[in-house]
């Protein structure tokens, strides 16, 4: 009898842990995207395309469906070349969707001697790791909301990937059902509010943060944007969706008052807090698991400027 209950208990803890994203997964994804082999993932380079294929492979492992056609890769044109965003869907009980995004492109390399690779571990391999992690968490689950996972290209070239995907005809049905978009932009470090906490850009513009915090119930905390003067809301990919009147904000941990790696070659794996990232991704996913179209319908107020 005793033996049996010990076995049952260990099986229980095995299965309850099995659903969570592991530190190994987080480390593998972010270190692969930020590796020197990816040469800074500049849009239009072979390494940028290699990163898109790598993200496709992860989406497949996490059992996502295609957003458009018969591939996760959604093409658009950039300077006469075909380049790609990466998009996958998780079907939930409802047609209504939540979106999760980040950008996988970065700034490539410089002509400097020595370390000349802009690895972009924080910016924004960390954001891609978050959406891969959330899709991993839901791999064997049936959530209430359907979910769309979008890895944007060309953020550093002027938000062009998110603009292309948001305007892609094949995405119209998804956009119509999108209740909110969580765009992850630089979450590799602890925030100025401590660990297990992010800030949301444009927090004055909607009730998304308040609603999310209510459901998170302390598991993870979303703070107002302390750098509101920098207008970060209008400077990342969320704005391509905001322009379509979809509630879309960016979530970050970057301490913009003292950050030393922003758009520098030292934004590499050495600055990544894998433990904190893993905890945040799991707690974000656990909160999302509680959300349904009945209890979660964020709205903009009239402070947001969308034109
Ligand atoms: Zn970025």
TrEMBL record:
Residues 1-18 form the signal peptide. The keyword Ligase does not apply. Residues 85-287 form the Peptidase M28 domain. InterPro entries: M28_fam, Peptidase_M28. Keywords: Signal. It holds the Pfam family Peptidase_M28. The keyword Signal applies. This is M28 family peptidase.
């Amino acid at each position: 009898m005793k033996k049996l209950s010990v076995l049952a208990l260990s099986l229980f803890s095995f299965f309850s842990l099995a659903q969570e994203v592991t530190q190994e997964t987080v480390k593998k994804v972010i270190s692969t995207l930020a590796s020197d082999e990816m040469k800074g993932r500049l849009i239009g380079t072979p390494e940028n395309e290699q990163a898109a294929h790598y993200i496709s492979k992860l989406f497949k492992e996490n059992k996502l469906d295609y957003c458009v056609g018969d591939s996760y890769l959604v093409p658009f044109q950039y300077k006469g070349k075909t380049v790609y965003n990466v998009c996958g869907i998780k079907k939930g009980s409802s047609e209504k969707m939540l979106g999760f995004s980040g950008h996988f492109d970065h700034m490539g390399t410089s002509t400097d001697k020595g370390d000349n690779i802009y690895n972009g571990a924080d910016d924004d391999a960390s954001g891609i790791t978050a959406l891969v992690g959330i899709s991993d968490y839901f791999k064997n689950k049936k959530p209430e909301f359907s979910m769309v996972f979008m890895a944007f290209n060309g953020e550093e070239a002027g938000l062009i990937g998110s603009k292309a995907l948001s305007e892609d005809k094949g995405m119209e049905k998804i956009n119509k059902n999108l209740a909110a978009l969580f765009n992850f932009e630089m979450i590799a470090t602890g925030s100025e509010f401590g660990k297990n906490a992010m800030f949301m850009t444009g927090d004055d513009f909607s009730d998304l943060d308040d609603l999310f915090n209510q459901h998170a119930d302390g598991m993870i905390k979303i703070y107002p944007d302390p750098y509101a003067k920098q207008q970060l809301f209008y400077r990342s990919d969320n704005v391509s969706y905001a322009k379509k009147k979809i509630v879309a904000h960016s979530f970050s941990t970057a301490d913009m008052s003292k950050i030393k790696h922003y758009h520098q070659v030292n934004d590499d794996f050495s600055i990544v807090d894998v433990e904190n990232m893993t905890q945040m991704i799991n707690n974000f996913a656990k909160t999302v698991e509680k959300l349904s179209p009945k209890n979660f319908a964020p709205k903009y107020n009239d402070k947001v400027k969308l034109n």
